Amino acid sequence: MRSAIVDLGSNSVRLVVFEGRERNPVMIFNEKATLRLGSGLDTSKRLNPKGVALAEDVFKRFYAVATTMGADPFVVLATAAVRDATDGPEFINKLNQWMPNVPIHILTGEEEADYAAAGVLCSIPNADGVVADIGGGSMELVQLCGQQRFNAQTLPLGVIRLMDRSERKVSKAKSIVTKDLKTVEWLDEVKKKNLYLVGGAFRAMAQLYMEYTSYPLSIVHYFTLPYDEAKRMVEWTIEKSKGGLNNNMPTFIHKRLNDLPYAATVLGQLLARMRPEKIIFCAEGVREGWYMRNVVSQSARSQDPQESAARDISERLGRVKEFPLALMQWTSSLFKDESVTMKRLRWNACLISDSGCHDHPAYRKEESYRRILCMAGMAFDHPTRAFLALTTAMRYEAGVEEEFLSSAKKILTHKQFEQAVILGMAFRVAYTLSGNLPSLLLRTRLKVGKKKLTLYFSHHLDAVISDAVTRRLSRLGQLMGLETQLLPDHEDEPKALKAPKASKKQ
After folding, report:
1. Which of 300, 403, 424, 444 is most buried, judging by how many CB atoms fall within 10 Å of its CB?
2. Residue ranges in the chain modelled with pLDDT below 70
3. Between the CA of residue 135 and those of 80, 144, 154, 313, what are the distances in Å?
4. What CATH number does the domain located at 2-106 have?
5. CATH assignment of 110-287, given 3.30.565.10, 3.30.830.10, 2.130.10.130, 3.30.420.150?
């Protein structure tokens, strides 16, 4: 089952086709065309004629692709440029001819903010703070708290419009932004909260700064900076834009070069007004918000996005669907005073622990690591990606000093890195011991004591306690600073499998 949305903005128009009705959007087609329909709108009050002239071929192509793919529902959402232009209705009439029988919705500023907020909540359901969605013609602000949306407001601060209003003078743009933000009185109520940044200009700024700082992961979604570092990024972007950027930048950033100082100016004034604890870049916005509200069922919406994504990996790539549950039970004593966050990580790691089983053995550890670290889904923040990828690599016999693990070392704290290694090594013992058979694994149990790590086994399982099991158990004990021992277990009957309690959406 497929669905499609055309996001008609002031700078670009994009077609996205989603496949399925799952909790986490799966894009199978994503194409953008830059029309800059909002260029000059502030003075002419009309859509950019050059963009209008290019639009017919673009929309006819999008229509052919989406209808041939059988997308249903299939809609067009138009935003600030069409909303504000005097010839907006005339352009909509053309769209109806180019895309017959496709519903076209001109979003109000509040509706646009609402969809953007729903998009952020799609992958970050515990978001608490303010969403700022910058486009070409407008910027939408909306407050998020407790999975609810409040105080939606739109401002004429899209990068194209701000460029026009300031006559391409960044210093003048700063005063315009400051004045416009003063009209948003509720911003004073959300000081120190997080700021979630949506929109192509913000994403381009993040990508540029990630390259400048040699950040170890080229995924903008969930890229997070504390307040002071965010300020440095804004200052660096504006200063760098003055002198021009080198030609080695990605193509999509070159297309945004003129926009970057204005996006940075908007962000700088938001930082000054809110002083957020941190900023979080989000690649999910209006399109994903529409998907969540119009395609996904209410029951699917209530699922935890991380667990849903991990279950999908398990179902697609794992071999025995009951094994993750057995593994979760078997590793339950591994971490003393385990936090809710750590338990959630462990469960997701159990779910994906067999994801490299179909890879070639010579490349399995690295392939499984990169698969999880760089997966296309939006559910995982960067530390979670790194933790799960490292755990999976260790399960497939990676060494902690291997070069390809360097990204995990840079992203994770020392404690997180250590926990991921220990969990992965425990998985290695479990799979060696059981051959991926839940009933066999649960005839054994792992117990972590003050000084010893003990593997208990049923008396009739002597034959499965091989040299490989003993060696790997010993290695796990060394990592944990514990002696190891194997002992017969008087509990011959395995405990019944119990699913972990559903975690609250994070």
Report:
1. 424
2. 243-256, 459-464, 491-506
3. 8, 20, 11, 34
4. 3.30.420.40
5. 3.30.420.150
